[in-house]
Amino acid sequence: MMDGLGGIDEIGGGLPLKADINVTSLVDVAFVMLIIFMITAPIMQGGVDIDLPKAAARPLAANEGMVVTVDRAGKIYLDDTQVSYDEFRVTFAALVQRTNTSSVFLRADRTVPFGTVVRVMAVLRNAGVKTSVVAEEEDVVR
Question: How far apart are CA 50 and CA 62, in angstroms?
């Protein structure tokens, strides 16, 4: 045998090899990620912050559709992207045709002037989409 060149007897120092994976650190990382997702998930669902008007309305069905929002400052959002009224007026009909959208949900803050909401609704009507106005359910005492 060749002495001093790392023969078979010297490789493991005589200890048997263990092929198990230590999963303790993997479980720790998984729990930390779970906690992070549990904390951040409700924050990520916010969208545009508005105060919807209350009405005695039944809940809307969860259809696929585009969401147009008018916030309390009168800014217009397509889903979560802010656009000016002129951009909205010029591009909305083309966007509807390109995405093949048939319905739009209109969310407007309760403090927005009625004229602003009517202007947005006119653009929606001219695009030929079915518009559903979103409101919070009113607390009815019986």
Answer: 20
Residues 6+ away with beta carbon under 8 Å from 53: 108, 110, 135, 136
Q: How many beta carbons lie within 10 A of that of residue 123, not counting itself?
A: 19
* Structure-token pair, residue 60: 């809307």
User: Is there a contact between 77 and 69 (Cβ–Cβ < 8 Å)?
Assistant: yes
Copy the structure tokens of residue 142.
Answer: 């019986």
Whether residue 142 is predicted with pLDDT greater than 70 in this model: the reply is no
| pLDDT at residue 119 in the model | 92
Burial of residue 88, with CB atoms counted within 10 A of its CB: 0-12 exposed, 13-18 middle, 19 or more buried: buried
How are beta strands 54-55 and 81-83 bridged, if at all?
A: unpaired
Domains by residue range for the chain, with CATH:
11-44 (no CATH), 54-137 (3.30.420.270)
> What's the pTM value of the predicted model, to 2 decimals?
0.58
